[in-house]
Amino acid sequence: MTWMQQLDAEHAGQREAMRADFAELRQEMQAGFAQLRHEIQLLHTKLEQRSADLIKWSFVFWVGAVGAIAVLAGVLR
Predict the structure, then answer these.
(1) How many other CB atoms sit within 10 Å of the CB of residue 49?
(2) Distance between CA atoms of 15 and 19, rounded to whole angstroms?
(3) How far is Cα of residue 47 from the mean position of the Cα atoms in its chain?
(4) What's the pLDDT at 74?
(5) Can you give the C-alpha Rg of the chain in angstroms?
């Protein structure tokens, strides 16, 4: 009977160690996911800025193209 009690005690100790390891792993994962969320937010901000720059330069290009066509149309008349 003492052998079974000894095994139960060993298993209980292993369970507690395992629970502590899992708690530490959860904390590390939460910190990692928080960092990942932050980096994704930064990437999202950069992507929005690039999109705004692209729209701005597209507008400048098309205004320039329309202006050039208007000048050429005036010269050719």
Answers:
(1) 10
(2) 6
(3) 12
(4) 87
(5) 33
Q: b/e for 2-35, b at 16 or more Cβ within 10 A?
A: eeeeeeeeeeeeeeeeeeeeeeeeeeeeeeeeee
2 half-sphere exposure, CB direction, 13 A CA radius = 0
| Tokens coding 73 | 């149309």
Q: Can you read off the two tokens belonging to residue 69? A: 């066509």
What's residue 36's pLDDT?
98
> What is the percentage of the chain residues whose pLDDT exceeds 90?
77
The helix/strand/coil state of 37 is helix
At 38, is the pLDDT very low, low, confident or very high (cuts 50, 70, 90)? Answer: very high
Own/partner pairs, 28-37, CB within 8 angstroms, 24+ separation: none
